[in-house]
Amino acid sequence: MSRLVVISNRVAVPTADAAGNQGGLAVALLSALRENGGIWFGWSGETTPEFTGDIRTTQGGGVTTATIDLEEQDIDEYYNGYANRTLWPLFHYRIDLTEFERDFEGGYRRVNERFADTVMPLVEDDDLVWVHDYHLIPLGRELRRRGMKNRLGFFLHTPWPPARLLTSLPSHHKLVESMFAYDVVGFHTEDWLDSFRRYVVDIMGGTIDEDGCATVGDRTVRTIVAPIGIDTAEFEAAAASPEARFAHDRMHMSSTGRSLIVGVDRLDYSKGLRERLLGYERFLANNPDRRALVYLLQIAPPSRADVDTYQEIRSDLDALSGRINGEYADIDWVPIRYVNRGYPRSELAGIYRAARIALVTPLRDGMNLVAKEYVAAQDPEDPGVLILSSFAGAAAQLKEAVLINPYSAEDMADAITAALEMPRAERIRRWQAMIENVRAEDVFWWCRLFLDALEGREVVGDTAQIG
Ligand code: ADQ
Questions:
Q1: 318: number of Cβ within 10 Å
Q2: Fold of the domain built from segment(s) 232-439
Q3: How far, in Å, is the centroid of ligand 1 from the Cα of 397?
Q4: Which of 7, 78, 265, 334 could be a cystine partner for 111, CB 3.0 to 4.6 Å?
Q5: How far is the CA of 272 from the centre of ligand 1 (A)?
Q6: Alpha carbon 92 to chain centroid, angstroms
Q7: Apex CA 447: angle with CA 442 and CA 451, to 5°?
Q8: 43 vs 55: CA distance, rounded Å
Q9: Do residues 18 and 234 touch, judged by C-beta distance below 8 A?
């Protein structure tokens, strides 16, 4: 069996975490690394005055991690710059927030070269190399330039934007060309894959064959759909844990007789938090008799605080939740509990289970794992209702959710009303269809699907979506 080398911006350090605080992606990749042996390589999260390329390795739980420090300027231009001010907004269709700075692009190229230089000596001849996400798109090309012959895969965790948007990036051609250095490139959904293929055909004059191989000139890359899942078994167990029950009871005691509506998101403009609050406000305005029977718990831990747009969205939401609470609260009820902190996963599972409704309403999302976690945490006898944006990748799999247009406050208000009125039999029917998918297409399934494609093995079975 080939060893696996995972390369991503940040590295998850293996922990013997009884509370299960590691996300599904980390759990799946760590378990693949444990199974195959290998290394997880990335940025340490630390800065250094001058880049040295020194590699810090740790070993634990059968996994080796290797990390490097980057310079302050690297972080400004590569991470806070090109990755999070240019590619992230553009890939989430927010051209209005996209910043086009040459320095950012230079930093992005430099850090990808630094990654290539430092990881190259760690890779052995038969290793499978799996690169993750928009931070490292050109890494494959840099590795090939340095003579790497290994099987090289790339997975994008965000959407892939339509060609009309992508072409606004001054160096779009170079970026897409660099993806042809990989053997396999994976996306969460058919939609993102289609956008990529259309770019290849329409802008690059390439072709796509029936195996999903994209060819431009003499270069070919296999393109696949591989929707990421969660560690469903672990999450279902977490939802039944004492910590989850404690969180569940805490929610109930603090709100007797009221239905909890929950939202859990990183504080990011792509998650549609502003539109969600406005949709909930519309529900309150349209349903005076129902007001005091519900409340919204919005959990939104801050992220990327060094980027201005993230500071702006934070103050915007502070103001908006304050205004709605000011307008509608009573002496014994506030409509929105707005919380800016993280929770252990088992507590989160208890909160999901206590919630009659989950509002998962991103304006654009590669997949969205919260939607799947909510489904996994439900009580099979009395499940809640998932209200899901049709613009989240998860909507392609969770078709029995109440799908909405997150830009429409009316749509959201109507969906909340419908969810509150939904009979138990219908809630169970919808939930059963969803949990079947969340169980079958979990994060381990996703990992195998991608690695099988990377190894060139045929993928069989009706859930496989190699296209
Ligand atoms: P994210 O944009 O981070 O991921 P998401 O898929 O929803 O979005 O994952 C967030 C994770 O963070 C979930 O596991 C959630 O439980 C956890 N989380 C959020 N708030 C939390 C809190 N307050 N406390 C504890 N945990 C919290 C990117 C892409 C997504 C894609 C994933 C995986 O943007 O579209 O689904 O990668 O590919």
A1: 12
A2: Rossmann fold (3.40.50)
A3: 17
A4: 78
A5: 14
A6: 12
A7: 150
A8: 10
A9: no
pLDDT on residue 466 = 38
411-441 pLDDT, tens digit each: 999 999 999 999 999 999 999 999 999 999 9
Is 365 a residue of the active site?
A: yes
Give the separation between CA 318 and CA 315, rounded to whole angstroms. Answer: 5
Q: How far is CA 14 from the centre of its chain?
A: 20
Domains 4-229+443-454 and 232-439 share a fold: yes
> Which residues face 262 on adjacent strands?
297, 358
Ligand 1 atom, smallest distance to 159 CA = 35
Indicate the length of the chain as a whole number.
467
Report ipTM (2 d.p.).
0.99
pLDDT bin (cut points 50, 70, 90) of residue 62 is confident
CATH of 4-229+443-454, one of 3.20.140.10, 3.40.50.720, 3.40.50.2000, 2.160.10.10: 3.40.50.2000
Which range is least confidently modeled, 97-101, 162-166, 453-457? 453-457
pLDDT digits (tens, 9 = 90+) for 37-48: 999 999 999 999
**Which candidate in 365, 411, 442, 452 is catalytic?**
365
C-alpha of residue 173 to centroid of ligand 1, in Å: 30
Instruction: Please give the pLDDT value at position 241.
Output: 93
- Residue 155 token pair: 């997975």
Ligand 1 close to Cβ of residue 29 (< 6 A): no
**Per annotation, catalytic residue among 92, 135, 157, 188:** 157
Give the start-to-end residue ranges of the domains of the chain: 4-229+443-454, 232-439
Residue-wise pLDDT for 96-113, tens only, equals 999 999 999 999 999 999
- For the Cβ of 447 lying below 6 angstroms from any atom of ligand 1, the answer is no
* SS percent in the chain: helix, strand, coil, step 5: 45, 20, 35
State the Cα–Cα distance between residues 195 and 188, nearest whole angstrom: 12
Q: Write out pLDDT tens, residues 191-236.
A: 999 999 999 999 999 999 999 999 999 999 999 999 999 999 989 9
| Ligand 1 pocket member 388 (CB < 6 A) | no
Q: How far apart are the first and last CA of the chain?
A: 25
Active site residue 135: no
Neighbours of 320 (CB within 10 A): 18
Is 271 close to ligand 1, i.e. is its CB under 6 Å away?
no
